[in-house]
Design goal:
The protein is mainly α. The chain folds into two domains: 1-147, no CATH class; 151-243. The protein has helices at 2-9, 21-31, 37-48, 59-65, 68-77, 92-108, 114-132, 137-147, 159-168, 178-195, 203-222, 224-242. The longest helix is centred in the last third of the chain and has 20 residues, at 203-222. Pfam families: UTP20_N.
């Protein structure tokens, strides 16, 4: 199991000496965003095993953010705004990437039944975004990059060129599922409502991503006949196999 492997890796006293260490460290950081808080906790233990002087002092606070019973209290006391920040200025550059990833994972996680889980996730998202209002500009960009990671390639290059590429190079087999696209749109709406002026400098990227996604969906809908042809071929293949 994934968690069992992570629990082994976090025991190493000198993690930087491990084989393929850069790839492992990258994996730990990716898993900090996981929707399962137990995976997040195991990944955090691996990151903390590096004993980084700018991250280790916040160990207990980071761990409490991963506990449902302590989450709301801790996020209130874990202030990052300039006036009341508990984070030393010289620590922010190394701590904030870890904190942002943990909060992104927490925002996406669901608990309880399907209905209760969605409600809890919505409440948690609002709490996280209010907390992020104390972030600095580049830190907000870091969080938005996590939010748009599935479509991050769409913000590169010029807007017109990327929209044209989204249409001309569309591959139906690689189109992001509509459910995931819907989640991105919802997250954007909530982020804009809660972060407001803090995302102004990111708006051109947001617009470019939205235009490219819209162009891809429009082009995909225009190719529905191809999808139906493929479905027909597959259906006929099943008939032949049954014979």
């Amino acid at each position: 199991p994934l968690i069992a492997h992570l629990e082994v890796f976090c025991q190493f006293s000198d993690p930087q000496s491990l084989y393929l260490e850069p790839e492992l460290f990258k994996l730990y950081n990716q898993l900090l965003c996981h929707v399962n808080e137990n995976v997040q906790k195991a990944a955090l233990d691996c990151v903390l095993s590096y004993k980084h002087p700018h991250v280790l002092p916040y160990k207990e606070r980071l761990e409490r953010l991963l506990q449902d019973r302590h989450f709301k209290d801790e996020i209130v006391h874990f202030s990052i705004s300039e006036e009341t920040s508990v984070v030393k200025p010289e620590h922010r550059a190394d701590l904030m990437p870890v904190l942002m990833r943990l909060l992104y994972g927490r925002m996406r996680s669901k608990t309880g039944s399907k209905t209760e889980g969605k409600a809890a996730a919505g409440t948690r998202m609002a709490i996280v975004l209010r907390f992020l209002a104390g972030s600095q500009n580049e830190e907000i960009h870091m969080y938005l990059d996590l939010l748009y990671e599935p479509v991050s390639h769409l913000k590169d290059g010029s807007c017109l060129a990327m929209v044209q590429q989204s249409v001309e190079q569309l591959d139906l087999s690689k189109v992001l599922p509509l459910g995931r696209q819907h989640n991105i749109y919802n997250s954007l709406e909530v982020a804009l409502k809660n972060l407001g002026h803090l995302v102004l400098s990111y708006l051109p990227k947001i617009l470019q991503i939205l235009l490219c996604m819209t162009a891809s969906v429009t082009q995909a809908l225009e190719q529905r006949s191809k999808v139906k042809q493929i479905q027909s071929i597959i259906f006929n293949s099943f008939i032949i196999l049954n014979l």
